[in-house]
């Protein structure tokens, strides 16, 4: 980019007009006030590829650290870093810690204490996680408005296209400039439909009120006595027209989006998928007949594959006969089972770690141990966290604990790094670095989603006083996009059914 910029200046003979060039640290995309992406494509595949060499892994980690450094430079904060031990999260934490230390040694560094993020002098906590910390959230169907629009209608960089009410396609922006999107993104879809109807009725009432105020004297002869009053009404009406027009445009936009969603929901029984998957994760499985009913019922190939993987993750132990039954049902619907086989392989690694020793481990266990250490067990451990009474995501529970700073066995083993502390001192012994924190930056390595983003914003808003949580990821993925990456890994490992059509 710098090279192209320089050539452009030379060719246009305007180089003498440049006074100074700044590096703006822009290796990230801001999607919302509290949401960003590094747009690192297929990061989960790259980090989990069993054939990836150390140099390739190091390069990916380097790219992630560069992106995070840009985010922190923009916010002008040096956070305390926390993450589970082992795997990509620890690798990113260690390199980022070193990068920040090196930069802080410079005379004119980018960071000033209590920068743009904080309202106080307290530093934020940066919580790093790897996608395998909680796999199910990246796959499951969700029935809330923002995740549903992203997953079903393909929201990309805050833009989507849906069929218009008069034919053709309508393109819409969904960002902070849209008050309805900001206010209702976390509601379940039926609640959103009610809210659209409510706002439409309010709009009609307000229009009727304007018409009545400016309707004159009902046909009676005008004698001039109401001139001042009528003029005032007309002025008010004129002033309210732009606001009314804008409201109507927002209502029409979300009516079109909701209509498109409703069509997909009915066609694919997405409400049933969302409810049944949630039940599975909370209860730890479902009845065999109910399982088969879903796999042989409505839904796309990707819907059925995602459902089968959630069942696999949520069930503590599954008889081989049941696994074969699921695979047969998927093949009957011409679904490639590579992603299912891959998750089954990861899940079996829990057992492998329990019995493996350095002399007898297979290549796949060597690979997993090198990349994840003991944290591989988190693939299923994350589900157990859902069994609490509040059904919070494991990620949200961990972030809440890290922000509270109270002793908690779930996060006690987490790595703690302070880039501002001398290298020789032990950060873990400094109790003030363990919180409580008013601000957090949460980053998911291997792909994030709107479900986690929404859950973390709810966490921040229910705190008293309200806290501030920023969520970022290597990329923002729909459930369908994520299982495509799982399928690639399954195929690289020689798993799955050959010849079946890929999920779509």
From TrEMBL:
<dbReference type="InterPro" id="IPR027482">
    <property type="entry name" value="Sec1-like_dom2"/>
</dbReference>
<dbReference type="InterPro" id="IPR043127">
    <property type="entry name" value="Sec-1-like_dom3a"/>
</dbReference>
<dbReference type="Pfam" id="PF00995">
    <property type="entry name" value="Sec1"/>
</dbReference>
<dbReference type="InterPro" id="IPR001619">
    <property type="entry name" value="Sec1-like"/>
</dbReference>
<dbReference type="GO" id="GO:0016192">
    <property type="term" value="P:vesicle-mediated transport"/>
</dbReference>
<dbReference type="InterPro" id="IPR036045">
    <property type="entry name" value="Sec1-like_sf"/>
</dbReference>
<protein>
    <submittedName>
        <fullName>SEC1 family transport protein SLY1 isoform X2</fullName>
    </submittedName>
</protein>
<comment type="similarity">
    <text>Belongs to the STXBP/unc-18/SEC1 family.</text>
</comment>
């Amino acid at each position: 980019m710098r090279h192209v910029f320089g050539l452009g200046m030379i060719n246009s003979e305007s180089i003498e007009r440049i006074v100074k060039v700044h590096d703006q640290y822009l290796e990230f995309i801001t999607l919302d006030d509290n949401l960003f992406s590094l747009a690192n494509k297929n990061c989960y595949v790259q980090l989990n590829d069993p054939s990836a060499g150390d140099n390739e892994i190091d390069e990916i980690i380097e790219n992630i650290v560069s992106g995070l450094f840009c985010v922190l430079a923009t916010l002008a904060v040096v956070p305390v870093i926390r993450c589970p031990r082992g795997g990509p999260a620890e690798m990113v934490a260690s390199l980022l810690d070193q990068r920040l230390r090196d930069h802080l040694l410079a005379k004119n560094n980018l960071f000033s204490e209590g920068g743009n993020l904080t309202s106080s002098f307290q530093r934020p906590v940066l919580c790093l996680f790897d996608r395998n910390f909680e796999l199910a959230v990246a796959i499951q169907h969700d029935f809330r408005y923002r995740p549903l629009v992203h997953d079903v209608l393909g929201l990309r960089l805050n833009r989507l296209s849906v069929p218009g009410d008069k034919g053709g396609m309508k393109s819409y922006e969904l960002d902070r400039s849209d008050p309805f999107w900001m206010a209702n993104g976390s509601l379940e879809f039926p609640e959103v439909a009610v809210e659209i109807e409510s706002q439409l009725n309010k709009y009609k009432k307000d229009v009727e009120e304007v018409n009545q105020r400016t309707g004159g004297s009902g046909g009676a002869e005008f004698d001039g006595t109401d001139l001042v009053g009528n003029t005032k009404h007309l002025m008010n009406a004129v002033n309210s027209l732009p606001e009314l027009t804008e409201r109507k445009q927002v209502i029409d936009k979300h009516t079109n989006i909701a209509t498109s969603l409703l069509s997909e929901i009915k066609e694919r029984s997405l409400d049933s998928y969302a409810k049944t998957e949630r039940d599975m994760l909370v209860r730890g499985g479902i009845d065999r007949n109910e399982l088969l009913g879903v796999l042989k019922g409505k839904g796309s190939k990707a819907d059925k594959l995602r459902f089968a993987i959630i069942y696999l993750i949520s069930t503590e132990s599954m008889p081989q006969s049941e696994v074969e039954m699921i695979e047969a049902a998927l093949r009957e619907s011409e679904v490639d089972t590579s992603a299912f086989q891959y998750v089954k392989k990861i899940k079996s690694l829990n057992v492998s770690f329990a019995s493996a020793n350095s002399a007898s481990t297979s290549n796949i266990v060597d690979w997993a141990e090198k990349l994840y250490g003991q944290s591989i067990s988190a693939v299923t451990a994350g589900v157990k966290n859902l069994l609490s009474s509040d059904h919070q995501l494991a990620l949200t529970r961990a972030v809440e604990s890290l922000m509270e700073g109270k002793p908690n066995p779930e996060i006690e083993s987490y790595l703690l790094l302070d880039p501002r502390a001398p290298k020789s001192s032990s950060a873990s012994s400094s109790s003030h670095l363990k919180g409580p924190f008013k601000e957090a930056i949460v980053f998911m390595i291997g792909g994030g989603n709107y479900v986690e983003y929404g859950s973390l914003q709810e966490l921040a808003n229910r705190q008293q006083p309200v806290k501030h949580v920023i969520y970022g990821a290597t990329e923002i993925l729909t459930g369908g996009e994520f299982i495509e990456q799982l399928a690639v890994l399954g195929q690289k490992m020689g798993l799955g059914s050959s010849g079946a059509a890929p999920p779509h």
